[in-house]
Here is the input.
Amino acid sequence: MAVSLDRIARRLRERVESTVESGLFTSENQQPFGLSHLSPTDFARSMKLKGELLLEFKDRALAEYYDTEERENEYGACLKITHHAELGIELCTAATCIEEFSRELKLLYGIGPSVESKLRTLGYETLSDLLEHPRWGSSAKEMIQCLDESNAKALQSHIHRWFPISHPLSCKLISLVDPAQIKFFDLESLGLFGRPILLFGTAQITESGLEVVQYLVRNIMEELPALIEIAKVLGVEPALVTYNGRAFDTNLLEERWGYYGLNVEFDPVHFDLLHPARRCFRDKLPDAKLSTVESYYGLTRQIDLPGSLVPDFYNTYLETQNIGPLIPIIEHNKQDLITLAVLLTEFSR
Here is the structure.
C-alpha cells in the first residue's frame, strides 16, 4: 500500500511542478487573503495539487491506501490509521547521561561559574564529591537520588531552573525514560486556539523503528471520541516529544479536553525539540522551521502542503467527501513524527 501511495504522490508532484513551471501560475499572482506569509507560487502549487488529488482519489477509500481501524468508545467513533517506519533510533545511554549530569555542579543552588571553578580546584569534580560538603552536601544527595531513581521529570526541572531550556542535557535525559513511555506527538487543527483538532498523531519506538498511530476526525462530531482515544494512548505520565509543542500542541490538546468537560490526567515530562534545534542551527540555517531542519538532514517529502493550508484542504474534504485532500494532511503529520524521531536521535547524542 505504501509503495502504491508513493508512486501516486510522485506522479502528482511531477504534474503539479510541470504546470507551475509552464507559467500557468506565476509569482505575480495576488497573494491569498490571510496567507501573506505564503508565496503566490506556493499557494498556486497547493491549489493545483488539491485539484489533482480530487481527481486521483475520486470514489476511493482511505482503507485502500492505509492500515485503518474503526475505533469506538462511549462518545462515538473515529478512524485509527497505523504506519510502520523502518528507522534507526539510537539514543544516548543512561550511563552517559548520568555521568554528564553528575559533572554539572552548577545544577545546585548557589553554585555559579566562579564557585564551580573554585570547587574544582579543591578537587570537587562530581556531585558525589560534594556529598560531605557542609553547604552543598544535602543538595548533592538529593540530586544523586533523582539520578538513581531515573526521575527524569525532577531532573528536568533542575535543568530548566538554572540552564536554558535548550541545554543539551535536556535531550539526554530521555535515556533515563522507559522507551515504552516515549510518545512522539503532533496534531493538525482547523486553526489556532479555540478551533477543533482534525488529526492526532502519535508515534512510539519499536524494535524495527517507529510505529505511527493517527486518529482522524472524519467530521467534527468525531473530535470528542478522538480526544478520548488520544488520552488513552498518551497515558498519565508519558515522556512527550514534540516540536513547538509547549507553545501550541499540548496547550490546544488540553484546551479541547476542557472544552468538552473532560477531566484528563496529563502530566508529561516534555521534550520540545524546537529549542535544541534553535541552539544547534542558529548559525547554520535561516530559521528553525521543521521543514528547514529536515532539509539539513536530507529528508524529503513526496507529497506535502504548507501547514497553513491544512484547514482549507480539510474543509474541501468535508464539502466533497473526497479523501484526496486528506492524503497530504495525513502524510504531513506522519512525516513530522518521523522527523521528530530523527531529531531526537541526533540531539540526544
Notes: Strands lie at 67-73, 76-86, 182-189, 197-206, 209-216, 239-242, 269-272.
